[in-house]
Write a structure and sequence with these properties.
Length: 144
């Protein structure tokens, strides 16, 4: 009496094919996830600039000449991190301003040297609202 022990070649090939299909789906999803995590650093690094811009509006000192220096922030190129090259803060009017973050070091052409622009719009007696845009591919832009 011969009893079969182990797996047949067909069974092993099916398992390898299933693992290959799972890897083909998982690797791109993981890459997207890690790039989104790197881009999310822009929000953390630019938070003080965003707060300074909103505070300037509340104090009535926001204008089209508002810059990092007038807000008491470090120079744009001095605000850096592993994935951020610079953070530039600018007033565009007495009720609006922008915070521009330049990205670096992610090893992705969709992100490196591109910008994330946080745009603030305020109405007297109401809350300031923020929108996110820029040249970073939309898939990776942080949600606000």
């Amino acid at each position: 009496m011969n009893l079969q022990k182990g797996f047949t070649l067909i069974e092993l090939m099916i398992v390898v094919a299933i693992i290959g299909i799972l890897a083909a789906v998982a690797i791109p999803a993981y890459t997207t996830y890690t790039l989104k995590a790197k881009v999310s650093e822009a929000a953390a690094v630019s938070a003080p600039s965003q707060q300074a811009l909103a505070l300037a509006f509340n104090e009535g000192s926001l204008s089209s000449t508002t810059t990092n220096a007038t807000l008491g922030l470090p120079a744009a190129t001095a605000i850096t991190s592993r994935y951020v090259t610079s953070v530039t803060t600018a007033g565009t009017s007495a009720t609006a301003g922008t915070v521009t973050v330049v990205m670096q070091g992610t090893n992705s052409a969709d992100i490196d040297t591109k910008t994330i622009i946080y745009t603030m719009g305020c109405v007297a007696g109401a809350q300031c609202t923020w929108t996110v845009g820029g040249t970073v591919t939309g898939t990776y832009l942080p949600k606000f």
